[in-house]
Amino acid sequence: MKELIETIVKPLVDFPEEVRVETIEDDTRITYHLTVNKTDIGKVIGKQGRVAKAIRTVVYAAGSSQQKKIFLEIGE
């Protein structure tokens, strides 16, 4: 899943080498924390959050076969 997020986000940003995905796993959920350069945060979120929503939709669909709930947090 980490590779999927990186594959989606890296073409969108100006500094793909600064894209980081951290995984935090609990008993009932998996949280992926996406970190990008400060100047790229707007590109990842998009107008009215449309790009972020699309990324989350793909990630949630890909992880639907798992027994745990999946969350994607976007930060700088």
Protein architecture, described:
- The chain has 76 residues and is α+β, with helices and mostly antiparallel strands.
- The protein has helices at 2-9, 41-45, 50-62, and strands at residues 20-25, 29-35, 69-75.
- It has a single domain (2-75), classed as K homology (KH) domain (GMP Synthetase, Chain A, domain 3), CATH 3.30.300.20.
- The protein has 3 helices and 3 strands; from the N terminus they run H-E-E-H-H-E.
- The chain has a 3-stranded mixed beta sheet.
- It is globular, with a radius of gyration of 12 Å.
- The mean pLDDT is 93.
- GO terms for molecular function: RNA binding.
Write the layout of secondary structure elements.
Blueprint: H1 2-9, E1 20-25, E2 29-35, H2 41-45, H3 50-62, E3 69-75
Parallel strand pairs: 2-3
Antiparallel strand pairs: 1-2
Compact overview of the structure:
This protein is α+β, with helices and mostly antiparallel strands. The protein has helices spanning 2-9, 41-45, 50-62; strands spanning 20-25, 29-35, 69-75. It is built from 3 helices and 3 strands, in the order αββααβ.
Please supply descriptive tags for the structure shown above.
single chain, 76 residues, alpha+beta, GMP Synthetase, Chain A, domain 3, three-stranded mixed beta sheet, 3 helices, 34% helix, globular, cell shape, cytoplasm, KH_sf_prok-type, KH_dom-like_a/b
